[in-house]
Amino acid sequence: MSLGGHLVELRRRLMISAAALLVAMILGFFLSDPVIAFITEPVRKIAEARGDDLVGLTFSSVTSPFDLRIRIAFSLGIFVAAPVWLWQIWAFIMPGLTRKEVKYTIGFVASAVPLFFIGCYVGALVVPHVIELMATFTPEGANNLFEAKQFYDFSLKLMLVVGVSFVLPVFLVALNVAGVMSGRAILKGWRVAILIATVFAALATPAADVVSMLMLAGILVVLFFAAAGLSMLFDRRKNKRQKAEGLLPDVGV
């Protein structure tokens, strides 16, 4: 295909993705009320605990309420339309991939996408605890009036951070497949991985909720060791194949 043909194909894929995103955003706009009710649940709990009405979301401009709903609609649209735009990206790059690269890419996407959504779900469970914990640092006599835009951005970004953290082990496997890191090199970093997982879980969960912290840290550690084990398995298979081809001396792995 010529360069012009590639550009035409890219435009077509982008148009399909944009149309799917627009439809999903319209649907997300009408679903914004349940989302707002969900993310503001910790705010209502803080207000009930203090027994006053000086806790809640604030809108600093006339258009802020509409802007918040558009932000929610866009976020929901990205998630709902994900199967469409992911397929369009895949369909565009697939003709340039070898059969082996296609196999690895399918495996990567099939692993990364579910882990990302699971991570976002875990993040959604963690966000209310973080907000309630941060509110405990409010000085006596002060009020918690959360600016709506910043409140939503904080909640969304924290969910995305947890979602991405669940996908990081898949990137470790991808680096191993690409020959950048060996399985042994990944496994050697287990102490650092456990420390990072524990610190992250401690920051992402309330201080008094030790069970949630251990569960989140445990999930991240298990994912890390699964990535290291899978990478070592790939290395073993690669070494056996190279031995069979006479590219490596016949020594134990």
From TrEMBL:
InterPro entries assigned to the protein according to its UniProt record, in alphabetical order: TatC
Pfam families (alphabetical): TatC (PF00902)
Which of UniProt's keywords are assigned here?
A: Cell membrane, Membrane, Protein transport, Translocation, Transmembrane, Transmembrane helix, Transport
Signal peptide residues on this chain, from the entry's feature table: none
- Membrane-spanning parts: 12-31, 72-93, 105-131, 158-178, 190-208, 214-234
Q: Where in the cell is it found?
A: Cell membrane; Membrane
Report membrane topology: Multi-pass membrane protein
* Keyword Transmembrane recorded: yes
Predominant place of localization: membrane
Family label: Belongs to the TatC family.
Q: What does this protein do?
A: Part of the twin-arginine translocation (Tat) system that transports large folded proteins containing a characteristic twin-arginine motif in their signal peptide across membranes. Together with TatB, TatC is part of a receptor directly interacting with Tat signal peptides.
Please give the subunit comment from the record: The Tat system comprises two distinct complexes: a TatABC complex, containing multiple copies of TatA, TatB and TatC subunits, and a separate TatA complex, containing only TatA subunits. Substrates initially bind to the TatABC complex, which probably triggers association of the separate TatA complex to form the active translocon.
Q: Which PANTHER family match?
A: SEC-INDEPENDENT PROTEIN TRANSLOCASE PROTEIN TATC, SEC-INDEPENDENT PROTEIN TRANSLOCASE PROTEIN TATC, CHLOROPLASTIC-RELATED
Q: What is this protein called?
A: Sec-independent protein translocase protein TatC
